[in-house]
């Protein structure tokens, strides 16, 4: 038995120079036991031939939506169903745009619209195309639609430019396929939602209320959960950190957006809510910048934000089996954490002292206490990565039913 034994992959090859690497990807996937069937777009056929894809996959390669033989034989709807995973590699800017917009004007985009299978894309394009706001928007839309993404990598590009846009290497794509189809590790098969970072609450279109959270702890948890085999959705407020690899990251600004994104990401097995969500927002944040007026100060009235942790922990349906909250306190850390556990209805509170002397906010390390209904466990001072790894192991043991 190999990792992908018996798994069927539909590989959509887009029209970019990275298409030549997709031929190697076919081999890598087959080495792992998967069967691979290919669709080549018109563009892809400028770089590689259907014959090469068929020779390497050992199966007929599909290119045309209106091919009479293909439609009589398998048909595009059957193509969209007869697999365990659709991989799009290279996913060009154009293919991503079509997917995000729901276009269906040739075989590849039609199959991608018709499929209900999980989809993994490996974007590849010029760095400026990758960084263009249109591609950013399309990527966000695709991630919100549940599409998984691997890469792109940074490095030299075909046009002698350097930057993000190189397709992930075939081995990296094969590893991402394994994570999706044959996850291993203590959280294999689990969906984990992590919230991270601060929220920004607008005062007007240019000003906002924020806090000092860096998102480091939450992002480290998302990465550790993914490495433990979980499918992870990270809902992140504005942070200065890269999206963790292998994790579906949804970017939000305000607490209300964060709650909406969490609700869209449900159902999940585990929720780990590490975001420093603003408790209040400005009640009537206007569409225009507040003007400075001589002798008067603006009066900001505040409204309470939804408590995301409490809301999700109290859901009558769809509540993750294990809900973990954080408590950043500057005094009476344990006592406040106990109260929070009861008030928010979660199963575990990770409490830490964030008084300025500790340097936790924005810093690299953390001293935490795990507070549950049955007791308290205090960990030594660890790096945020170590806290994340230990927390994920602890959560894995709790959900797996064995004592950590
Ligand atoms: O009440 P406090 O902000 O200290 O609670 C912290 C915990 O509650 C964290 O897990 C945080 O992510 C979560 N929280 C939330 N929504 C809020 C406020 C806090 O999810 N509006």
UniProtKB/TrEMBL annotation:
Binds 1 FMN per subunit. The keyword Metal-binding applies. The keyword Nucleus does not apply. GO terms for cellular component: phosphopantothenoylcysteine decarboxylase complex. It catalyses: (R)-4'-phosphopantothenate + L-cysteine + CTP = N-[(R)-4-phosphopantothenoyl]-L-cysteine + CMP + diphosphate + H(+); N-[(R)-4-phosphopantothenoyl]-L-cysteine + H(+) = (R)-4'-phosphopantetheine + CO2. GO terms for molecular function: FMN binding; metal ion binding; phosphopantothenate--cysteine ligase activity; phosphopantothenoylcysteine decarboxylase activity. CTP binds at residues 279, 289, 306-309, 326, 340, 344. Its EC number is 4.1.1.36, 6.3.2.5. Residues 192-404 are annotated as: Phosphopantothenate--cysteine ligase. It comes from the Bacteria. Residues 1-191 are annotated as: Phosphopantothenoylcysteine decarboxylase. NCBIfam families: coaBC_dfp. In the N-terminal section; belongs to the HFCD (homo-oligomeric flavin containing Cys decarboxylase) superfamily. In the C-terminal section; belongs to the PPC synthetase family. Catalyzes two sequential steps in the biosynthesis of coenzyme A. In the first step cysteine is conjugated to 4'-phosphopantothenate to form 4-phosphopantothenoylcysteine. In the second step the latter compound is decarboxylated to form 4'-phosphopantotheine. Catalyzes two steps in the biosynthesis of coenzyme A. In the first step cysteine is conjugated to 4'-phosphopantothenate to form 4-phosphopantothenoylcysteine, in the latter compound is decarboxylated to form 4'-phosphopantotheine. PANTHER family: HOMO-OLIGOMERIC FLAVIN CONTAINING CYS DECARBOXYLASE FAMILY, PHOSPHOPANTOTHENOYLCYSTEINE DECARBOXYLASE. This is Coenzyme A biosynthesis bifunctional protein CoaBC. It comes from Microvirga makkahensis. The lineage of its organism: Bacteria, Pseudomonadati, Pseudomonadota, Alphaproteobacteria, Hyphomicrobiales.
